[in-house]
Amino acid sequence: MAAAIAALAVPLILGALTAPRRQAQSSAAIAERPKFEVISVKPHKPDTSGPEYMLTMTQRGRLLYTGVKLDTLISSAYQLKPAQARLISGMPKWAASQVFDVEARAPGDPPHEQMLLMLQSLLADRFKLAIHPETRQLPVYALVLMKAGRTGSQLQPHSDAAECLKLAPGQPAPTSDFGVIPPPPPVCGRFMSGAHRIAGNNVTMEMLAEDLGAAPSMDRPVVDRTGLSGSFDLTLEYTPREQLDSQPGPDASASDPSAPPSVFTALQEQLGLKLEPQTGPVDVLVVDHVEQPSPN
């Protein structure tokens, strides 16, 4: 459901903040982080011959971003989940429009985790970035059961006999459009998402909530409040919000009667779940200070 990256040599794994309630980073802690040996930050100049967005992080100490905004750099450096990345607070107005090309090199062949720390150092040195995470009460969608103890026909307890696609760790899953006949099986132990379909094998409700919240059209985070434990196999066929004529919401309907329903309706009809608007604690990243970098 999340937008794909145009080019990605080694994926940046987006995960939870390691210490959601820690205080703003001290100058000493920032100084102790490893740094790149060579850094170049320049305004992006569009090139019609290639992709407008590219990220490359190799295991040879080279990092390259082409045509990215500040929020992308922050999200990558601090391993934010997609829903968290949309909730970065305190961003300046210029960050919404300015796009950068960033290239950096480190000596030797540092591990991926060290490269992320170097990217944090780059943001602190070149963008003067100072941040802190905090928990706020914000609008969320609670994923809940429609009827206690009952799930829909397309949400079943995990079966070891269920067909699934085995991929190596870090290997990207293929997409699955609703029009593919027959649709490919889900990936073992995770989701496979397409334009109109989510398929999961041996997944939890927490994983489903996170996947739903990562959708670009979802206007708030999704939290699991189903009370369902264990692993499940599921298939959800839906029409994204941006393809619906009416305003986003549980009662939105598709212009094509033969198209799958909205995600709100599909969850109810197919999985026996629903999204309830609520307020709840959400981990956000707050920008205390940031400056435009001088090009070099």
Q: Could you name the ranges where pLDDT drops below 50 across 5 or more consecutive residues?
A: 1-23, 245-254
Number of domains: 2
Please describe the biggest sheet, giving its number of strands, its sense, and whether it closes into a barrel: 4 strands, antiparallel
The run of helices and strands is: HEEEHHEHEEEEHEEHE
Helix content: 10-25%
Q: Termini separation (Å)?
A: 36 Å
Structural class: alpha+beta
Q: Radius of gyration, rounded?
A: 21 Å
Tally the beta strands: 11
The dominant shape is: globular
- Spatial ordering of strands, largest sheet: 1-4-3-2
How would you state the average pLDDT, rounded? 81
- The total count of helices amounts to 6
Please report which band the strand proportion falls in: under 5%, 5-15%, 15-25%, 25-35%, 35-45% or over 45%: 25-35%
Would you mind describing this structure in some detail?
The protein has 2 domains: 27-134 and 284-289, no CATH class; 151-271, no CATH class. 17% of the residues lie in helices and 26% in strands. The model is unreliable at 1-23 and 245-254 (pLDDT under 50). It contains 6 helices and 11 strands. The chain is α+β, with helices and mostly antiparallel strands and 296 residues long. Helix 2 crosses helix 4. The strands form 3 sheets. The chain has a 4-stranded antiparallel sheet, covered by helices on one side.
